[in-house]
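User: We ran a pulldown and think these components assemble together. Before we commit to crystallization trials, I'd like a predicted model of the whole complex to look at. Sequences follow.
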Amino acid sequence: MHKKSFVWVFKAAAFLAVLFVTLFFLQRLLMPKYMSDIVEGALTAEYYEETTGHEVLFVGDCEVYENFSPITLYEEYGISSYIRGSAQQLAWQSYYMLEDTLRYETPRVVVFNVLALKYDEPQSEAYNRMTIDGMEFSKTKLDAIKASMTDRENTLDYLFPILRYHSRWSDLSAEDLTYMFGKDKISHNGYYMRVDVRPAEGFPEPDILADYTLGSNAMGYLDKMRTLCEENGIALVLVKSPSLFPHWYDEWDEQIAAYAAQHGLDYFNYEKLASEVGIDYNTDTYDAGLHMNLTGAEKLTSYFGRYLKENYELTDHRADPEYQSVYAEKIQFYDYMEAVQRKELSEYGEIVSY
Amino acid sequence: MLFTSYSFIGFIAVVFLLYYLFPRKCQWPFLLAASYTFYFIASPSYLLFIGATTVSTYMTGRRLDALKETQDAYIKANKGSLSREEKKAYKASMKAKQWKWLLGCLLFNLGILAVLKYTNFVIANFNGLLQMFGSGGQISFVDLVLPMGISFYTFQTMGYIIDVYRGTCRAEKNLFRLALFVSFFPQLVQGPISRYSDLAKSLYERHDFDTRTVAYGLYRILWGYFKKAMIADRILTAVNAIIQNPDTYQGGFVFVGMMFYAFELYADFTGGIDITIGIAETMGITVAENFRRPYLSKNIKEYWNRWHITMGTWFTDYIFYPISVCKPMLNVSKASRAKFGDFIGKRVPVYLSSFAVWFTTGIWHGASWNFIVWGLMNFVVIMISQECEPLYKKFHNRFHVKDKRWYGVFEILRTILLMSSLRMFDCYRDVPLTFRMFGNMFTHFRLSELHTEAFLELGLTGADYALLSVCLLLLFAVSLIEEKKGSVRDLIFAAPEIVRYAVFYVLVLSVIIFGAYGIGFDQSQFIYNQF
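Assistant: Here's a predicted model for the assembly, 885 residues in total across the polymer chains.
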């Protein structure tokens, strides 16, 4: 190579290096942090900070990350578990969350909340972002992006999020600087805690649908999830969390029950089992019947934990020193957050920090 | 593929790399393949139309050349035996043959454009007439494709074939080379309308990778994206809010919309041309300039010499002059002089030719009465301005303000306002509404309505307005420097190397961070790629 050409190539490479480093920092700055608002957006990334393995994995939407408490499962049964759930996490996203998890560990039981099966097509860019942005780069992430994108979205925007979030330059706040390279923990093994109470109110009558058949795309991913579990020796359990809204039609329930029966899976509809679990929609929900609050989630977890303990050979990690020390911290954080939320509730009448 | 789409940026990156990786002799065939691929991606059906236009132009060009060669050979062979009259008669007969071929080709190429672009316009007008005369019958609209850049490439081929007919250039012997001239992909999106004699040489030439040429091109591309993404697409939100809601935004906001649209159109069109020229430049190809700081013009005539230059010169060379000097026009001129005297007689051909030019300019821009009236309004304004020339002279002789700086600024602002008000025909949905809103701008003007909150309701935030102001100031500063000192790019390249890198760095980051693109912005097509 000519000396002149070499110098030119060197300068161009140095320029590009400086440019890309700047863009990297700007990307970190401009990406939403989900720390003080819509904290659900931070859930996906927290999984990668885990230091211990998990024998039970929950996948699904808000009906898992607000309704099951892994800390309760550990405290009561010694079960190590994690929730890989996000707001409106669609069936294919849950599949790819499972696939992503298998890159790091192989749980014994996977619990999938079936509500998301009502959606057969990509729904919302904002929810896609909250679920996918936090995933570490892998082929699985690429597949999740492809499966999830709405019409106006572009793969490149996911791979280089600065192309999507550049317009936040005028909305930047101190939070963006504070959490540029590290975030606070907001979940408890994926569980999003709320201690406030808002009793259930009336909901509109469910719409009459033209067709109650669950979509083939969503069901196809349920099938893929089942196959993946079978290939990895994992038991798949289907659940429908207790909730008064959105409506879970009997016709959908029958299809899931039939699917479970056909493939020898357990399926529990806790909407129907709510009274057996002990759910009281006047005290156990923080948003009028959509999601459980802490007491509701602990009741449900306690009930479901018994099933797990009785049906699967799950290790009681409470005797394991490694888990003891890790979970001691987790429990401390869990109790701390509960105390803070209760304090805020009594002082301000609402939770302001979480 | 929009210039601002990732796929387009990816496409030009791949084309650029392969262009220099291929052996030099394969560069132009590769560009042809790239151009046809570009068109194929846009829509496979487009290839049929551009292919037909190319073949008809090629065959006619070859035939015209052959007739010319036959003529030259015949005259040479019979040099001694032909009388002057026989030679003249022979030449005339050959010219008539050439004319037939030329006319056939023009009608064919223009026919494709006319059918695809204007059929539904004609039907709509015919339906309007039927309705006016109380007929219940209506003709259904036809679902026709409108190939990208059809107006540009059709006019480009027409210019080429007329040049061959006139003998100002030789016909291209290689069909594929001509196909590249017609389809060169950067200029398919929104022009310019290139002349064969200007573009051909650098288009078919072999180019070595030259860092300076490439860097020059990249700067031009970036500057285009700066204008398009940071100004045009950002201000578009406010423009749309105003012009799509004429009942809400009246008076002062009609003026705001008019000015915003003027900025948008300028940034959009010149930005697109910068990208086109820049892409070509990175491959060593020189595409004609299409703008020379039109918003610094002091009168409308100067404005049209600086705005969409290739279109203006095309209409002048291929419509204005031929009509002005054609036999029927000379007869009309003669008759007018005899009947009305010299004053009117000498104006008739100019007026008629100008009318034809502006009518065509209007309809070229779009199949709608808005564009036709816009073209004719330009005609009216130019003619009035021309007729008022003696008055201006008297005024300047008396007041001596012509050389004053403030008067120059006044003239520039006057031209901007005049041209922007004519551009209102682009904005509102029909001609009556445009006239109504133009009047409304004066009758309903309330300064108190132009408050901050009202501006923020146009879909832009305070930060957007601040950014727009900075960008427009920068654009203005660059225009002024270019007007007084020449190319800003040359100045940057003459500065220390670190400055060059710093400018490039700031431009790239600015476009990526502050550009109005992607989800959250309604990405607009380049305004001119519909033509």
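Chain B touches chain A at residues 6, 211, 461, 463-464, 497, 501, 504-505, 508-509, 512-516, 518-521 (CB under 8 Å). That may be worth checking against your pulldown data before setting up trials.

User: Thanks, that helps.
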